[in-house]
Every structure is written in structure tokens, then in C-alpha cells.
Write a structure and sequence with these properties.
Strand order of the largest sheet: 2-1-3-4-5
CATH architecture: 3-Layer(aba) Sandwich
Number of helices: 6
Shape: globular
CATH superfamily: Response regulator
Order of helices and strands: EHEHEHHEHEH
Structural class: alpha/beta
Strand content: 15-25%
CATH class: Alpha Beta
């Protein structure tokens, strides 16, 4: 599906159906184009084929976890794709997980329990306006 001019495409990588659909609905209402992936392998493929403007990436995923996906995206040969802003969106609140994500190249790290969908959209807009 082609995106209209100016519409930002967001890849939501979330294996939990309820959360994935909640975020997708919210983002579509905010006029984002939405692509979803339910596991790490699909996330890597869709990053290459869809070239999203921003990725919301869960850590605990089937197949490859979010850290492996993050590492794979940052290592892609297409530099534009490799530099896609990535916001980790997870239930893992450990400082060590946050540090690992930042070291691997995450642009931000949000713990799901602490952020509303409005606040997540606000964070996304900060990266997309850069």
C-alpha cells in the first residue's frame, strides 16, 4: 500500500495482538501509515522492504528478540534504513536492558507501563521532526 505524500510510515513490532492493534489504531488516527510485524524475523524483512520512517520495537519477541532485530537493522548495508529511528517499547524496565538497547543504537527506550499512547506519539513526533 503506497503512502500518501508526507505521511510517515511506522513499523510496529509487537507480538501481543491487543497492544499491536491498540498502537496501530492510535497511529492511524494520528495520520501515520502503519505496518506491523509480530516477530523479529518479520521485523527485519519489513524494515528492508517497507523502509519505515520510525520503528516501535518490542524486546520480547518470538524468533529473534528486539535486541537482535536492533543489531540487524543497524548493520544493514542501506545506510538510510540502518539509521531509521528506533524506539524500544517494552515491559523490561531494568537499567541494564535500557543500557544494552542504547549501546546497540536505540534512539529511545520506553517502558510500556509508564507511557500512554499519546505520550508515545509525542516521542515519535520528536524523532520524526528532526
Amino acid at each position: 500500500m503506497a503512502m500518501a505524500q508526507g505521511i510517515k510510515k511506522i513499523l510496529i513490532v509487537e507480538d501481543e495482538k491487543f497492544l499491536r492493534e491498540l498502537m496501530a489504531t492510535k497511529l492511524e488516527k494520528e495520520n501515520f501509515g502503519v505496518v506491523t510485524a509480530v516477530d523479529g524475523i518479520e521485523a527485519i524483512k519489513k524494515t528492508e522492504t517497507e523502509k519505515p520512517d520510525l520503528i516501535l520495537l518490542d524486546i520480547i519477541l518470538p524468533g529473534k528478540d528486539g535486541f537482535e532485530v536492533l543489531r540487524a537493522i543497524r548493520a544493514m548495508t542501506d545506510k538510510t534504513v540502518a539509521q531509521t529511528p528506533i524506539i524500544m517499547l517494552t515491559n523490561l524496565g531494568q537499567e541494564s536492558d535500557r543500557e544494552k538497547a542504547v549501546q546497540l543504537g536505540a534512539n529511545d527506550y520506553l517502558v510500556k507501563a509508564f507511557f500512554t499512547t499519546d505520550e508515545i506519539v509525542q516521542k515519535m513526533n520528536e524523532f520524526l521532526s528532526k
